[in-house]
Amino acid sequence: MLQNIVNALVLGSSYVMIAVGLTLVYGILKILHIAHAGIYAFGAIFAVYLCEIGLPLVFAVTLSLILSALLGMIIYKGFYKHVLDRGRIVPLVMSVGLFATMEDLYRLVWGPYKRPFDVYINLPDVMTMDLYLSSRGLLMLIVTAVVIVLLYLLLMRTKLGKSLRACSNDLGLAGAFGINTDRSVAFAFLIGSSLAALGGILVGLYDNTVYPTMGSVPSYKAFVVVVLGGFGSIRGAVVASYILALVETFVVYYFGFLLPRDAIAFLTMILLLMFKPEGLFGKVRR
Amino acid sequence: MSLDYFLTVSVFSMINMILASSLNILIGYAGQVSLGHAAFFGIGAYASAILTVKLGMGYWPALLLSVFISGLIGLLLGLPALRVREDFLVLATIGVNFVVVSVFNYVKFFGGPYGILGLPRPSLFGHAFTTREYALYVFLWTLVVVFLVRYLSNTYLKLGFDALREDEDAAESVGVSSPRYKMYAFAIAGLLAGLAGNLWAHYMTVVFPDNFSFPVSIGILTMVVIGGVGTLIGAIIVTILPEVLRFARDYRMLIYGLIIVFTMFFMPKGIVGSIKGLIFGDTPLGKKRVEKVRRIAGAQGRIAGR
Amino acid sequence: MQALKDVSLDVEVGEIRAIIGPNGAGKTTLFNIINGFLRPDSGTIVFDGKSIVCVRPSEIAKRGLARTFQIVKVFSNLSVLENVLAGLGVDIYPSLEAFQRSPFAKEYVEKAWKIIETLGIEKYAFVAAGTLPLGLQKKVEVARALAVKPKLLLLDEPVSGLNDLETQEMIDVVKKINQSGVTVLFIEHDMHFTVNIAQRITVLDYGVKIAEGTPEEITKDSRVIEAYLGSEEVA
After folding, report:
1. Do C126 and C154 belong to one domain?
2. Interface confidence: ipTM more than 0.95
């Protein structure tokens, strides 16, 4: 039982990393940034690549985060920005196209095979009578906790954070008040993308596997989180991440014979979208 | 290039045409952005597979039943569309695609990841179709679908879809019930995609879950994105291209992705406009219709020259 | 917070009735309720002798209630003609006839053309509605609403954003429509238009009805003037 909870916490943490970025982008631009999945995968793949050529983990991670953040920026400035005025379908379909392109590029450049993330993590495994948590799992929990705290500080205590929240509330109004919306959006992408990459790295470490399409399923689940958490509420996204992870873990534990774990998440999302579209914390937007 | 190879490519192209037309009805006509279309394709295929292989039904009754089932499921899957905002419909449909494939993969009755084998070819008067005859058979169906779509696009059904796509509220205010029309769109699209699934399954004689996954949906989307009225052309391009350019086959998703991105960029009206835009240019109505209208209105002396 | 509180309205057949009030008074909400887009928390709406609460907007349209919108909602990618043809289909959509009848059949084209001429927009019949300037788009919306063969026409700010000439044209159009037997209920801020056309005016403020009467009475009503105090919209 305790083991299940621990597993769920780890799973939830991975969702947090992806979902926050998605929530940020959706909250401000109202675009379902499907290409986010591609950045998640990129972060992991690039980090693994750097480690394989000999860079120490910390450098690899940092470099990967920076590049992923830039990648996110490029996606915004180079692509989304130009089609924002064309309704909601166009940026969405474009995002799908970008995602497909990215995944295939990784496959072509890096290879389709799953590779291990062979790095030593200088943390202990936690082993008691009731539960086991690997060093990498512990890392995931610690990093996520730190990220959540930093995020909170950023959003609540800094000027940038306030701009982001204002934009998320009402983009037009924020602009009217003199907030540089373009810069805020850019920052949202920067932060969100590096978090996604970090998430990819952490999951890659935890599963000890990295491969080009690793972004697909986690990102769809991150969308479930965004829906559950209320489409734009960061707090909601964080809480929803853990709730979803808990639900998934326990349902699988008791009913695992019915459907694979991932399908459960998707069914949840479909049902949610149908019956409680404002999620747990959001407001219904017309 | 052998005749058999040519036939295979043709059959794939024609099945793709049917698929693209069905998605076009959903996205292009009715404006319901569905990104899980491979699910209907798969349901048609698997339904027929189960009926013929596991339940021993003959091909023709199985055809009828499997198409009906996929239309019905299309209808059911249209239910989320009634309650879900447009961009989230995309999520829901991706989810549906995924769930459907998971079911095929996971549930033993559907054969799991090893799929279902040994589907029969259709037979008439005791003679099972050869590859060539099957290709002709598919061709006939394709003609039926093309004519059906052409016919429908000249009805008030189509105008209802257009209204729904352009502005759901305004559509309601002129009498288009949006739940009803969304259901129509999903049912028709599901039906046609299910037909495509049946044709495909009995050509390949095997079905695997992986044949209906999300990348396949993206492929169908690409055809619609390229197309418009040229959806037929789009479908041909999509299947012919990787065959003709052998090396391109490995880059399929990459090419699809790039095509989608670039089309989104350079189509000023986005996916909606592409349906009429690329080919027609200025007026939303085709030349023939404009002439017909002028004649009717002019016949009553209503148009002053022009 | 309530958008509307105890608002009661009696529109006579054949009249032209205006609903005015400062921004946020709940006017469009009222329309949305009448139209079927919103459900009232309490109260009834009777149209043509029958209740239309909890009836789908599309069904309400079929019964003869048409509407234009505050923010123009033409079918942008469709030609003006198709916009009007779409309105003509109001009886057809719910039935299986939708699978059979063509909008471009002679009978519909003729009817649509007549309506288009009434609005004076024949020149633009084949143009995509979304490319037209606002004034013309508003006319297209009215034409489309007429195609529904309404007994009651709801116009939400029909002249907002229009210049003086266009406003005058709209006045003539609405008069013509009313003369042909259509009851008109409209929302407006433009007092020149309102006073020139309305036979009776109802005034809302903060979701509450504060006055009702003829244009002469209303323009002199102290409560109305107070509600608009400071606003440049009063004639």
Report:
1. no
2. no
